[in-house]
Design brief:
single chain, alpha/beta, Rossmann fold, Pantoate--beta-alanine Ligase, Chain: A,domain 2, 2 domains, 6-stranded parallel sheet, 11 helices, about 40% helix, binds pantoate
């Protein structure tokens, strides 16, 4: 496994693969890897001949410096996991490499980035699309894989790639869950023991909503079902519940008529968790 810290090194390594006709798959990450990331690597490996994983904790997508500082990091463990997963290249740039002196260019999906989670975290999706565009320009992958758990992020990236004619196929990887249903996330380690146990309410609420959707629910009845279930868990503070059209993320009302994304965010102590499910009537 080749570890590249500079853009020139990364490009040179990938050029040798491409010269042999290899299709390149990419999994962008912020490190502190878990089973969820490794499942994205597996998908990339199935879709491509060579796999590159980037590890870069992207400052421009964090609102507060404290959140950025608190983001967990473990380079040694990440590299061991990626090696065991059969990854070919790891790209680990520093901030000055990704955001060179005098940097001023941003990429923004103007509608998708500023609704839903983007309203509570201003600038977050702009930071994501800016860094992902830069990563794509560096690695020029044929295919890239992102988790469906960050559902709005996945829609932002699909829109951006389509609007900017970036020649990469975007694939969404299904959410990987702990045995009690909690979606895997690098943030889970920051939960207290009690909050960790309570946090499974998010996936329980989504499963209940899915069952209701099949039984002819309305957007309003799903909203009530989910908020009631979360209100029953005192440690959980519901910070966002959006029931929207799966692709456009436009708000819906009344009976479900097609694929519908349910996006939940909830705080446990100072840890903000998100989860989502696409349901159909
Ligand atoms: O999902 C993530 O880990 C990040 O938002 C991403 C896509 C790697 C961009 O920094």
């Amino acid at each position: 496994m080749q570890i590249c810290r500079s853009i020139s090194d990364c490009r040179a390594t990938l050029a040798t693969f491409r010269a042999n006709g290899a299709r390149i798959g990419m999994v962008p990450t912020m490190g502190y890897l878990h089973e969820g990331h490794l499942s994205l690597v597996d998908i990339a490996r199935a879709q491509a001949d060579r796999v590159i994983v980037s590890i870069f904790v992207n400052p421009s997508q964090f609102g507060e410096a404290a959140d950025l500082d608190a983001y967990p990091r473990n380079e040694t463990r990440d590299l061991a996991l990626l090696k065991a997963a059969g990854v070919d290249v790891v790209f680990m740039p520093d901030v000055a490499t990704m955001y060179p002196e005098g940097d001023e260019t941003i990429v923004e999906t103007t509608r998708l980035a500023n609704m839903l989670h983007g309203e509570v975290r201003p600038g977050h999706f702009r930071g994501v699309s800016t860094v992902v565009t830069r990563l794509f320009n560096i690695a020029q992958p044929d295919v890239a894989v992102f988790g469906e758990k960050d559902y709005q992020q996945l829609q932002v990236i699909k829109r951006m790639v389509s609007d900017l004619h970036i020649p990469v196929d975007i694939i969404g990887g299904p959410t990987v869950r702990e045995p009690d249903g909690l979606a895997m996330s690098s943030r889970n380690v920051r939960l207290s023991k009690d909050d960790r146990a309570d946090a499974s309410v998010l996936s329980r609420a989504l499963n209940a909503a899915q069952a209701e959707a099949l039984a002819g629910a309305t957007v309003e009845s799903l909203q009530k079902l989910i908020s009631d279930m979360i209100a029953d868990v005192p440690s959980a503070r519901l910070t966002g519940l959006d029931i929207v059209a799966a692709e456009t993320l436009n708000p819906l009302t009344g009976p479900l008529t097609g694929p519908t994304a349910i996006m939940i965010s909830a705080a446990f102590g100072d840890v903000l968790l998100i989860d989502q499910k696409v349901v159909s009537p």
